[in-house]
Amino acid sequence: MKERIPDNSKIIIRVSIITIIVNLVLFVLKLVLGILEDNLSVISDAIHSGSDLFTSFLIIGAVFLASPKRDKKHNYGREKVESLVVLFLAIIIGGVGVFLGYEGVRGIISPTPAALNWYLIVTVILSIIVKEWMFHYEMRWAKRINSALLKADAWHSRSDSLSSIAVLIGLVLSTFIKTNLAESIAVIIVALFIVKVAFSIAIPAVNQLVDKSAGEEVDKKIREIALQTDGVVSVDKLFTRMFGSKIYVDIEIAVDGNLTVHESHGIAHALHDYLEGMQELRIKHCHVHVNPAKCKASPVLEKR
């Protein structure tokens, strides 16, 4: 039987297809005008838009690879593929930043003559508007379905609009100083911001790949829920770890040692179902282990 694609994955694919169409139009438009007008900065900007095409196809591929369903070779599913792709996207974004920085430094060392060109200015302004729209469009869906993939791609779109702003500044200022010096300085500033964004995307992806804990706030919330569960005397141990965009929980609770196995299991099962049912915690799986506690009576026994 063919595996059904989850609803969130369908959203990611739909958003990616839209970005592919938009980026393809921008890439062709900027590349053709850049070549016709012999403007290296616009050609570089076109290449940047072209890299967005590649990442969008990469995201669609990751959706099919990062299946949450377990199989014989992947007992915990393949959701960590999403983290790998996000890390790869961060590397691409960082590479774009380094490339832009190199171009900016080269422009400062060896400035070239430049003249005002309204065709290029209008094209770059259109690119900025469209890429900013794409950033907000992707980020809105990324937050709605909690997708690190869409969030990383949204920032890739934002880095494209920022590089276009640098190009626009250079094109306009070229009217006054007759060289690309101002453009080169703006490009370096944007490059530094893009590299910073790349690091901000890469760090969470790395944390997910190395099973970093979900954090004190999440652990505190889980512990509070456990202690409020009928029959739980104490929380002996609690471990959480990131798994892609989800969380794995291993918790040991203590219950009255006089309870039957059936009663103890009921308490553990109630806690398990409640935690996994809380969507804001994004728990993929919760394992509850029960220990006997020394106490006079449990809340469950008092009700009997």
Treating each run of at least 4 consecutive H or I residues as one helix, how many helices?
A: 9
Uncertain runs with pLDDT below 50, 5 residues or more?
1-6, 300-304
List the strand order in the largest sheet: 1-2-3
CATH structural fold name of the largest domain: Alpha-lytic protease prodomain-like
Shape: elongated
End-to-end separation = 48 Å
The quaternary state of the protein chains shown equals: single chain
CATH architecture descriptor name of the largest domain? Up-down Bundle
Overall radius of gyration? 26 Å
Q: SSE order, as H and E?
A: HHHHHHHEEHEH
The tally of beta strands, per DSSP, is 3
Main sheet record: 3 strands, mixed
Tell me the number of structural domains. 2
CATH superfamily of the largest domain: Cation efflux protein transmembrane domain
Fraction of residues in helix: 55-70%
Q: What is the CATH C-level name of the largest domain? A: Mainly Alpha
- What class would the helix/strand composition place it in? mainly alpha
Give the mean pLDDT: 79
Can you characterise this structure?
The protein is mainly alpha-helical and 304 residues long. The protein has 2 domains: 203 residues, Cation efflux protein transmembrane domain (Alpha-lytic protease prodomain-like, Up-down Bundle), CATH 1.20.1510.10; 88 residues, Alpha-Beta Plaits (2-Layer Sandwich), CATH 3.30.70.1350. Helix content is 68%, strand content 11%. It has 9 helices and 3 strands; from the N terminus they run αααααααββαβα. The protein has a 3-stranded mixed beta sheet. The chain starts with 6 loop residues before the first helix and ends with a helix. The N terminus and C terminus are likely disordered.
